Amino acid sequence: MARRERNPRGVYEYVKYSVEDFLIVPAVAKVNTGVWYIRYRDRDGKLHRERVGPKGKAIELYGKRRNEIVEGKFRPDAVRARRAVSFKEIAEDFITWGKANKKSWADDVQRLGYWIEHLGTKPAGSVTAQEIETWKTKLTEVRKLKNRKTQACMGTTINRYLASLRSAYYLAMKNGKAEKNPVKGVKFYPERQNRRVRYLSDEEEKRVFAVLKDDERPFVVLALHTGIRLSGLKELLWGDVDFSAGVIDVQEAKGGRNYQVPMNRVVRETLRRMRDERMGALQPTEKGNVAALPSSILQKHAVFPRWQGRRKWIVSKWFEDVIDKTGIEDFTFHCLRHSFASRLVMAGVDLTTVKELMGHRTIEMTLRYAHLSPSHKQSAVERLAGGGSVERSITPSINGTLSTDLAGAKVAS
Question: Distance between CA atoms of 131 and 129, rounded to whole angstroms?
């Protein structure tokens, strides 16, 4: 008869027993759960128990506790605090911290919501890298969007989900609610810069503005003519709009830096009209006469106030409906920013200037807009053919190298 394998000292598995099954078939009454505990006594002889999770982790933690007791480093209060912490608790701690310290905290709410759904009831210390890998794979298969459509997550998007999870664990470690970060054992997807830039053609722009409502039009106009991100437009105050200098001070959430964008004629007229309408709504009337109020009253008011309605504030949702009506494919609100930069480059604006207008930190971020449509590049090289002939003469220079002269070429300015 084979000898039953004994568990390591101080480590045991939690099992369930069914009374009904025991009465029928005693052999199946014991149900293994896969959840392992450890038990040990401190220097005072007091018994301690901890729920761990996998057997290997339990054996590892038991050895650690024994060493702490021998070295006099064992702290029962800290152990109790860690044992009581669920993953949901550390995720909510990070969200609370993010609301006070991050402008992009709403993104963490969405991403951590996914992890809470699948890991929320588990002890934070029992979550393993393997479990995270499993749910990471699920993200690659399909995710449900707010518009009830489904699509696979790209590697970059999944990395943002993992980054939020990793940050939540780092904060938990700082607060003494976790001993280690399981995300360190999870492989992130390689992120390659997307060289393909989707911008709005002239024909597509006409189709978009044909279906826009009056209160939706200013959002699109400013995005298309200033390149300001959606988050920047939502944070834009009338105090950031300087009509005398003709510039807009952009308070960017991404990157945490501010920059200025000049207003062209279209932007200036749009903002003046919005300002006049807003002032008209704020001016009190007395006996039918409108009392003039100083424009400074608007300085702390949002250019796009939230009270326009929740649906209007969720710009990506109504803009998606607009794009669906036009039949344009593969185009989001952020592509309006790409359109702004791409049109500048196609108009001959140098990349350094485009970098400043886009608020980029480095020129590498702007280089993606150098990859334009083949037709535009073709028209650029056709300038060399301009109507004249190109004569190529190669003559040796003084130092023995070859110099090339292009003579007779009429290059369009």
Answer: 5
DSSP 87-144: HHHHHHHHHHHHHHH-TTHHHHHHHHHHHHHHHTTSBGGG--HHHHHHHHHHHHH-EE
Beta-carbon count within 10 A of 246 CB: 13
Q: Which residues, other chains included, contact 330 with Cβ-Cβ below 8 Å and sequence gap of 6+?
A: 198
> Which alpha helices (H) appear in 175-253, and where do they start and end?
202-211, 217-226, 230-235
Cα 275 versus chain centre, distance: 32
Give phi and psi for 260, each to the nearest 5: -115, 145
Which stretches of 192-336 are assigned E, i.e. beta strand?
241-242, 247-251, 258-262, 285-286, 289-290
Helix (H) or strand (E) holding 341: helix 335-346
Which class for 339: exposed (0-12), middle (13-18), buried (19 or more C-beta within 10 A)? buried
| Dist. CA 248–CA 264, nearest whole Å | 11
Q: Is 83 within 8 Å of 51 (Cβ atoms)?
A: yes
Residues 6 or more apart whose Cβ sits within 8 Å of residue 107: 160, 164
**Chain Cα centroid distance, residue 132:** 19
Place of tokens 């050895």: 63
User: Mind giving me the DSSP string for 32-90?
Assistant: EEEEEEEEEE-TT--EEEEEEESHHHHHHHHHHHHHHHHHT---HHHHHHHHT-BHHHH
The DSSP H or E segment spanning 407 is strand 402-407
Question: Which tokens go with 396?
Answer: 């040796």
For each of the chain's 413 residues, which pLDDT tens digit applies?
Answer: 455 567 788 888 876 554 444 444 444 445 566 778 888 998 888 888 887 778 888 899 899 999 998 988 887 776 665 556 889 989 999 999 998 888 778 889 989 999 999 888 888 888 999 999 988 888 876 554 443 444 445 778 889 999 999 999 999 888 878 888 999 989 988 876 555 678 889 999 999 999 998 888 999 999 999 999 888 888 888 889 999 999 999 976 565 678 899 999 999 999 999 888 877 766 554 444 444 444 556 677 888 876 444 445 577 778 888 999 999 988 888 899 999 999 998 888 888 899 999 988 888 888 887 765 455 667 667 777 765 444 433 334 334 433 333 334 333 33
Structure tokens at 78: 């800290």
Say what the pTM is: 0.54
Q: If you ran DSSP here, which 8-state letter would residue 152 be given?
A: P
